[in-house]
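Quick one, tokens below:
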């Protein structure tokens, strides 16, 4: 059961970057305040969540006081909003526009964890909200859709009028796993299916649904390419990452993070679909070389690097070979791979091409920056930028480190 409230004015979605609005009316107890209203705020602020925007050029930090938005290159705090009533456990951006989706933390007296607030930061007000009977696990946005993830159900709404378009039943989903495509010509959603290890892929534009049996264990993490035509998955075992064609469910490649069980925190695909990054509780970010077909040249722009899904679809629907690069890839494999089928599977696995080591006791999410760089954000309030050699791989070089929020955990520099 849900309830929806829509503001009298429709959502305003400009393409310009976020800019701080005028100060909100101080008489409103639910309004955001400026940092100067809390002189000791840094010492009392707890980091509740971190999440990338859709093109990985910004990230949002939900705190016990409100939220903060950061630009990645160059790194800087764009703005922050602080509440007198508590913080937010979910802060979801929509590229770099003024619209955000917010879900309050447990201690937030005004915005409970079962309510999604659609916040217009230019107007400094809520323009819509959704209330549910259970806590919200995640919110995902694209320019025309709002997706709310509960533990057993996903709701898909129209962004313009907040009307409910789809309801999807899932297996228990406490992590709030869900991913959307963001290309204007595709509308793809990936979420857990109703069975262990299964991913459900909805191609809304094609009115088609595909079930992919990705793993034997429960799904722990997955991501889509920008156009939604490739899916990368990991299970709760955390040893293997698999890449699938979402049109027909074909498995295109499998890489190995390690042999020991690990909790996978994030999976990221580079804009040109040449590289894959994985972070886990083992304290290492692994980079893998992908052997899927890459159309066009690398680009520093996320949008310009996304190729036409029509070309991709034409190739993927006619031949599996069209999706696999003729190159054997740069990931190192076992010297005993010639005995595949005789020795245990890890002897024939593709291992990571490059690595970056981090503290093991902190949760990190990773994404790709420009020119063979990887950006990493940690729940200890740390930001890293590192680079990898696209020819030789190996240990990545740390280029930048910023402590954007002081927490109880002290990160160790590499």
């Amino acid at each position: 059961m849900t309830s929806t409230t829509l503001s009298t004015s429709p959502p305003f979605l400009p393409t310009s970057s976020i800019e701080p609005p005028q100060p909100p009316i101080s008489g409103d107890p639910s309004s955001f305040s400026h940092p100067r209203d809390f002189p000791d705020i840094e010492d009392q602020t707890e980091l509740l969540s971190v999440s990338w925007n859709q093109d990985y050029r910004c990230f949002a930090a939900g705190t016990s006081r409100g939220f903060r938005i950061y630009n990645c290159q160059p790194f800087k705090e764009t703005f922050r909003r602080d509440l007198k009533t508590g913080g937010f456990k979910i802060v979801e951006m929509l590229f770099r526009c003024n619209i955000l989706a917010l879900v309050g933390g447990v201690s937030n007296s005004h915005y409970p964890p079962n309510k999604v607030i659609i916040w217009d930061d230019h107007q400094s007000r809520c323009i819509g909200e959704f209330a549910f009977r259970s806590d919200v696990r995640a919110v995902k946005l694209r320019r025309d859709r709002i997706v709310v993830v509960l533990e057993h159900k996903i709701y898909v709404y129209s962004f313009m009028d907040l009307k409910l378009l789809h309801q999807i039943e899932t297996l228990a989903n406490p992590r709030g796993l869900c991913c959307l495509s963001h290309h204007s010509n595709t509308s793809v959603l990936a979420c857990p299916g109703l069975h262990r290890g299964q991913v459900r892929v909805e191609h809304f534009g094609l009115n088609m649904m595909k079930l992919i049996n990705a793993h034997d264990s429960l799904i722990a993490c997955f991501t889509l390419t920008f156009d939604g035509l490739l899916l990368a998955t990991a299970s709760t075992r955390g040893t293997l990452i698999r890449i699938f064609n979402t049109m027909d469910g074909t498995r295109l490649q499998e890489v190995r993070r390690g042999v020991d069980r690990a909790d996978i925190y994030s999976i990221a695909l580079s804009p040109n679909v040449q590289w894959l990054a994985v972070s886990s509780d083992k304290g290492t970010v692994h980079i893998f070389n992908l052997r899927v077909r890459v159309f066009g040249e690398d680009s520093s722009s996320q949008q310009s690097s996304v190729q036409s899904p029509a070309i991709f679809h034409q190739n993927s629907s006619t031949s599996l070979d069209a999706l696999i690069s003729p190159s054997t890839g740069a990931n190192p494999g076992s010297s005993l791979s010639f005995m595949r089928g005789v020795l245990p599977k890890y002897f024939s696995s593709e291992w990571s091409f490059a690595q970056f080591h981090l503290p093991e006791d902190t949760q990190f999410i990773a994404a790709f920056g420009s020119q063979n760089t990887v950006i990493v954000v940690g729940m200890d309030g740390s930001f890293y930028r590192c680079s990898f050699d696209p020819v030789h791989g190996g240990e990545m070089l740390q280029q930048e480190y910023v402590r954007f929020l002081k927490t109880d955990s002290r990160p160790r520099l590499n």
